[in-house]
Amino acid sequence: MINRKFITVTILILLTAFIVYATLFKTVHHKEIKINASVPVIHREISSLNKIAKWFLPFATADTNSNKIIKQESVAYENSSLKITNIIGYSAQYEVTENENSKPILFNVMPDTGHYSKVTATYTATLWQHIFNSNKIIQQTEKSLENLKDYIGDAKKMYGYDVEMTSVTDTTFLFSSKVVSKLEKKAAFKTLYE
Length: 194
Known about the structure:
Layout: H1 2-24, E1 26-35, H2 39-46, H3 49-55, E2 68-70, E3 74-77, E4 80-88, E5 91-98, E6 101-111, E7 117-126, H4 127-132, H5 136-153, H6 155-159, H7 185-193
Antiparallel strand pairs: 1-7, 2-3, 3-4, 4-5, 5-6, 6-7
């Protein structure tokens, strides 16, 4: 009987300790994605408010006329805003606000194999928020990574027009030589390219 009570109390204490830990203590979490683009191309996308508004949620889904860029410091839409707080190397730190909640998010770009780059979003959250995906800012940040990948992979979205590959046959070859005196050099060059 005592063993049963002891086991029950121990389980309750452990369960309570886990719930307290999972809801109160924040830890650092990472979400990583590979994108088929060079580091400088991706860095331009994560370090400019005009470009961030095209792929970061909720700004990317809003009408572009609804997004407001305020003094090149932040972009805002309805109850959401994003402010670039720091850019160091190929990293950009944002302060993302949704209603009254605010959270710092770090985007880091690193080279990977071939022409690919790794983009990592780093944020702090409780274990509870991470397991149950209960923080809207974190949800939007993780979806925004996928949006960034799709945005960079779609030339029409990124450049405003379709980029198509076409084969071009170059038939201009120059296989001519001519020996001329120094006085006739100018005239000879002219006839060579006409």
